[in-house]
Structures are given as structure tokens and as C-alpha cells.
Amino acid sequence: MKVENMRAHLFAPKWEPWVVSALAMVTGVVGGLGAIVFRWMIKVVHTLLIGDSLSAGHLGLVVLGPAIGLVIVSLITHYGAPEVKGHGVPQILEALALHGGKIRPRVGIFGIIAPAVTIGSGGSVGREGPIALIGAAFGSTMAQILKLSEKYTTLLLAAGSAAGIGATFNAPIAGGFFGLEIILGSYQMGAVVPVFLASVTGTTVFDTIMGSQAVLQTPSYHVINHFALLFMMGLGLIMSVVAVLYTKGLTFSEDFFNHLTIPFWVKALAGGLVVGIIGLFVPQVLGVGYPTMHLALTNQILWGGLIVLFIAKYVATLLTIGAGGSGGVFAPSLFLGGMVGGAFGNLLYAISPQLAPHPSIYAIAGMAALFAAAAQAPFVAITILLEITGDYHLTAPVMACAVISFLTYTFFTRDSMYTVKLHRRGIKILRGDDVRPMAAISVQAALEPLGETSIRPAAAVSEAWQKMTRLNRSFLPVVSRASGLEGIVTMRDIVAAMQSKERNTTVENIIQPLPKPIASNESLDEAIRYLSMYNMAVLPVQDAATHRIAGVITQSGVLKAYNASAVHAVDTAHQVESLKQENDGLFVEMELPAVSPAVGQAIQDLALSKNALIVSVSRKQGAMIPHGSFVLEPGDRLLVYVVPASDRQSIINQLKAKEIVAYQGT
Question: Model pTM?
Fold first, then answer.
């Protein structure tokens, strides 16, 4: 009781900012030390597995190094801590969205070992994501030990990630923006001070021990061409497309390896061997690649070499992540952006030296632009490039390129490279600590199929009026055998026709056309946007698979679907919270096989354990919030909350024994 009283006293309004800032600084110290230890471990692994094999002619070690590293990492992630698989930041966001910022302490341990092995053995990934995860894990663990509330747990988690990024890049401002913009997703005043304090502390600790210098020191450039900003905007358009290819490529690679029906270690071995073979011919793509980036920024690589490096790095990074590696995608995005930007600058220089007297400034802008788009974080991208190069003369061109790339990217997709995996699982992250699954509910939830509510174009107006009155509707879809859905007929038009001399006219003479259909796998958020944009009460819905018109949605139908989902989401949240009061649980993702006896059954009819709660169901149409009458289909992916966490495996085994689900992972 005394401990509780002391905690309440320390977090009183008078002392809260001071206590939170002090804890953030402690987190920053560990983040800075973690960055140092992590770099040391990478060097040790590299010395043990590869060393000077390339220069010594030991080509076998160059090829086998990444394969050995990925196999070791796959064993760690399979048996030790699945959270450290991948590139770090999505795991932080998932912890914020689903676990109140809680990360298992072992993640801090395995989170430094697995990526160190991946990078040290030649895997084509970066240091930044793992460093952020290590700092976040410490901040979360410290909050759990002190039994702090969810508010402070998430804040210290963000502070830890900011410290790690600030230290590894020697960029305290960018580190702070990383914690706010990417992790928390907001600039709340209560978070700004502790997050930036943690970043500054981490950077100071790192600089004190390792020395202070820009990561990618470049000459001081001055933009002397007045058309440079226009060229930068053009480069921004190009980089937005490259960013989409990068994000989609990461997703494709992970999906490809996940669908392979071979042992996990065989996937790691195969992927690692291909990375090693690429590294044999283009060794610059192995590891993080900062020396090669520096060459691009100082215009020491020819145009053709930049293109080759881009292609090789792109493929090597996708293979490393997809095959089960652990490492960041931040640094590879800078590498790829630098190569494309450098090639663009060299092309301008070849056309006319007056157009681009310093081609390498386009490499710097390309780095910022690719990350700004792929991570959907323009502030982080702009500040980090200015800090790691140490050249603030480039502020205007870097901003122009990054902002155009950021905005254009949103025309292709709204998911960043950090949130796309979570979105596909039905976890819609709007802010770092906010999850809104109903924002990912598909249009299917509000779909009204074309059936008895429709009418033929040749039908008389009086027939349409009688049918509309009987069904108590304000409109009817007009469907013909030849053309399908032709439009709608409204009560207002019918009444007007019946009151006029055209009383005996047919429906086809008063049809109102409908706008372009919305796909059935779009979200209800998109449906609302479409309805507002077209100023219509009805929208046709096109089946995403067959491209045929499946029905219509209405404003009232969308609102009803939202209301039902909101009520169910609140009820689900209350159930999760009531379970949490007894024991901490965790979220488990499971897949429904075609032979499952649960196929065709409603959620309420399943014999699930009282300690397992189905939170969302994902299928081809998108993610949905399941109600009691929700009928399951083959291939459905269930997000299940299991409590207590210690019962996770027993509940999974029970479900597998009943052949209800095939376990996929957390």
C-alpha cells in the first residue's frame, strides 16, 4: 500500500512532468548504450562468419555467410521470440495497439542478438529498426517493473525507440520526431518533452563513448540552379513510385516465403544463399551499406553502377526480410533512394552540367523522399537527412522532394512499410496507441444484394410505386438482363411521374444513373468518402474478384454497419479489459482450414474456451468485426485474444485437436 501511495504522489500533477522526464532520460541512457553494444556485436559476428573472406579469396564464406546467419536467426525467432522477426517497428506499433505498450523483456535480449547475427553475416538490412525495438523494449519493461499505467508505458516505449534512433544516426532531432511521428503518431505536448529528452540523452551517451560525427558527412553544397526545386519535385514523383515498389515488394516477399510448404530453416537457408550469391558479385549490398551510400553522396559512382546497386540491394533486402531475417528497412530505403536520386542527378548532369552542377544533391534528396513516402513520415525523413549529412543548405530541395513524394505515395496506398502487415491482419493503426478495427471493415458489411428489391426497366411506374411502398424503401435498383444494374429509381421521381401526364410511362424513362462503383474490399471509410464526393445516397458495389456488380450500399446502410461494429467493438473491448483484470493475455492469429468443422458455423455456436475471445476476422474482402451470428468461411484468419498468456499454447492445442483452426502465429 505504501508503494501505491508513493507512486500516486510521484505522478501527481505537480511532479508528473519531472518524474516522466527522469524515466525518459534513464531510457535514453540505455538506448544509447544499446546502440553501442549492438554495433559491437555486429562486428563480432561479421569477424566470426565472414571477416576478410572476399579480399582473401574465400568466396565460399561470402556465399554461405548470409545463409548461416539467417538459419541461426530463424531458430531464434521460431523457438525464442517471434516478435524479433522482421524489421522491428511493426512489432512496436502492434505492442502499442494491442498490448497497451507492453513488450516481453526477452524481446530486448533476442532483439539485439537476432539482428546482429543477420547484419553481421551479410544480411541486407539496417540497424535502425532493431535499435528502436531494443530501446522500446527497455522502456516498456521498466514501466512494467514499476507497474506504471498504460499511458506511461506507451510513452516510455516511444522514448526508448527515439533514443535508439537518435543514437545510431547521431540525430537527436530526427530521433525525437521518429518517436512522435512514427511510433506515437501524434505531437501531444505531454509527449514531446520526454521523447526528445530521451533522444538527446541517447545521442549524448553514444557520442561520449563513440565520438560525434555525421553518419554520412558530405561537402557543403549550395543549390545554385534556380530550376533545382522543379527538378526536385520531379524526382519526388519518381521516388513515390519507387517507395510503392519497395513497400509492395516487402509484403510480396514475406507472403511468398510464408506460403512455401517447407521447413522454416530451409526457407532461411535458401534465401540466405541467394543473398550470398548476389553479394559475391555486388558485395556493396551486404550489410547496412553506409560506405556505398557515402560514395553516392560524393558522386563517386557512375550512372550504370548506381542502377546495378539499386537492383541488387532491392532484391537482397526483400530476400533477407522474407526469408526470416531480423533487421531494419530504414537504412535500405536510404540506400535505394540514394542510388535512384544519384542516377537522376547524373542524368541531368549528362544533359547539361548547368542543370545539375552537383548531381549528388539529388542522391541526398532521393534518400529523404523514399523514406518520407514509404514510412509516411516527412518530418523524420527531412530532419534525419539534414542531420546525418550535416548540410543544412539543402533544406529547401530536400523538403520539396520529400513532400511531393510523400503526397504522391498516398494516391497509390495509405499503408506505410511499417503498417501494411498490421492493416492486412485487420489492425488499422491511426495513431501509435490507437487501433480501430472497424475502420478496416469492408463494404461487404453494408452490402445490399440485387434481388427482390430491384425492378425491371420495362416495369410501369405504378408497379414501381406499389413495390416501393410495400418494401418501405425510398429507391429501387433498376436491373436488366442485358446490362445488369442500370441505375436507380427514386420515390420522388415516381411521384412526380404519377402526378404528371406521364402517368403510364415506364421506369426506364426516369432512371437516375449511378457513379463509378466501389470495390467490395474497400473500407466503409472509403464508402463514406465516395458518398460525400459524389453527393449520392446510393453507390453500386463491384465484386473485387469477379468485377461484377454485387449490389449497392446506402448512406443509412453504412451508418448501420458502423453502429453495429462500434457497439460490438466496445463490447469486445470491455470483455478484453475484464479478462486483463485477472491476468495479462496476448493476441494470437489463427487460420481456418477448409476441412474445419467450424466452417459454416456461427461464432456463437463454436465451443471456444471461455479464455479465448475472437476480436476480428480477416478474409479476402477485408477485416470484419464478428458478431455472434457471423458465419465462418474456409481461409478465415481469426485474431483471438487469449488470457492468461500462459494458456496460449494449451488453447491453441485444444483448437487444433478439434481441427477448428490451423495455428499461424502471433
Answer: 0.69
